[in-house]
Amino acid sequence: MKFKIKNSLFLLFLLISFISQNQIFAAVENAEFPYIITNGQGQYSYDLWTKNDSSNDIIQVTSSSDYGANWNKPIDLSDIGQNATTPCFANDSTEKNVYAAWVRSNGTNDIVQFSSSLNFAQNWTSPQDLSATGQNASNPHMITNFIGDHVYSIWQRSNSANDIIQFSRSTDFGQTFSNPVDLSDVGQNANTPQIATNINENCVCAIWTRSNGINDIIQFKHSPDYGANWNSTVDLSETDENARDPRIVTDGTSVYAIWARYDGANYVTQFRKSTDNGSTFFDVIDLSPVGFSVDNPRIVTSNDAKYIYVSWYTFDGMFTDVHVVFSTDSSKIFTAPHVLNKYGQNCKDTDITTDTNGKNTYVVWVRSNGYNDIVQLGKSNDYGATWTTYGLDLSQVGQDAKNPRVMTNQSGKEVYVSWARSDGTKDVIQESHSNDYGVTFSVPKTVSN
Q: Which residues pair with 51 in a beta bridge?
């Protein structure tokens, strides 16, 4: 009897400990994956992220109307009761019209949802479903045009056999959307879609990764009429090795695409362009150095597509470094890679932005200082002619930071950086900004609750 009592007490102790631990873990309420945007003069900035509410992950948004000096209380965009993830963001040049999309479970499947604000993120519409129910959808990406009346969204969704790329558009400021259209062919899985458009919004370009039955290749599709009709699918990467991480930009006539492709030993950043609205493409160009494997390639351009900047991080055999290459002549010539960080600790999670003229360009990444991961920034204010020697520390030491995003306004003067960082108890979203072309940055401010 004593043995049973002792064992019962022991089991009761374990049960209480388990419940207590789970209550503690549930109350942590971590926030992650911020997505910061601005446009126009940069007076208005918006930050979007995923945050745990102690039961589920929800999508939250906050805004600043005074160049980042003050931030409003976060607003919940997704409904409670089910997990929501992978938020994305867009706003127009007036900074007034703001659009958000994310993935949320309906209890049976993951679906892509959308919400809009037409008054500087003060009020938001109730979430509307973009993807059809019945199968899982994921990886949404979204863009809007100069005045915000056209909104384009893309995602991947299962058809019960394979994941395919789907597209939907709105021509009334996000109030209603068209029925989803399949862009990729059935029969093999497609994923990681991205979408781009020009200022006039008539040209819409989509890119994704799709298996050909043997390897994953990069595919492209183009619409010349605001997403109403789409041309045939074009294979961009060579078919005998895997490719991943596609990105695309366009000014309407020129189309620039990048991705990382395996060369048999390493992943290489590759580039390909079209000068006829995506009807034909020039040969593939390798941008990263031979013998090093790259991750997270990103591309930005000036509005006229003359200045092109591509960043990534790469392993040199000992450490990972942040590289940037650029072209000042619409990709006729690319520079050799510039290393932006101080050598000696690992870097990761790159992001890049430039202004409308391509003069002021900013790159952010996460780098270890030997104790913690911190967010750093490198920049050029002269069309890439010179770059900062070492990264400028933006996040504070003492706790790890991750998931940095950077955005600048049309002139490049206002620069906003957001990331997730531990406060010692939970991960919070922090923001720092510069109002002087990245010369000085504000003390990081926590914008999540």
A: 31, 58
3-state helix, strand, coil split of the chain in percent (to 5) is: 5, 45, 50
* CA pair distance 225, 208, nearest whole angstrom: 20
Q: Cβ-count burial of 146 within 10 angstroms (0-12 exposed, 13-18 middle, 19+ buried)?
A: middle
Contact 427, 32 (CB under 8 A): yes
Nearest to 413 by CA among 356, 375, 328: 356
Say whether pLDDT at 405 is over 50. Answer: yes
The model's confidence at residue 7, banded by pLDDT at 50, 70 and 90, is low
Q: How far apart are CA 293 and CA 290, in angstroms?
A: 8
Going by C-alpha positions, the residue among 65, 62, 118, 61 that lies closest to residue 87 is 61
At 19, the pLDDT band (50, 70, 90 cuts) reads very low
Choose between 379 and 203: higher pLDDT.
379
Specify the DSSP class assigned to residue 224: S
How far is Cα 314 from Cα 291, in angstroms, rounded to an integer?
10
pLDDT of residue 14 exceeding 50, the answer is no
Residue 64, classified by CB atoms within 10 Å of its CB into exposed (0-12), middle (13-18) or buried (19+), is: buried
Three-state SS for 10? Answer: helix
φ/ψ bin of 92: left (φ > 0), alpha (ψ from -120 to 50), beta (otherwise) = beta
DSSP SS3 for 168: strand
Q: How far apart are CA 367 and CA 373, in angstroms?
A: 5
For residues 70 and 21, give the distance between their C-alpha atoms in angstroms, rounded to a whole number: 36
Q: What is the DSSP letter of 396?
A: P
- Per-residue pLDDT, 277: 87
Task: Return the closest-CA partner of residue 258 out of 295, 214, 304.
Answer: 295
| Residue-range domains of the chain with CATH | 2-446 (2.130.10.120)
For residue 397, the one-letter residue type is V
Outline where DSSP puts E strands in 302-441: 308-315, 320-327, 338-339, 347-354, 361-368, 373-380, 392-393, 401-408, 415-422, 427-434
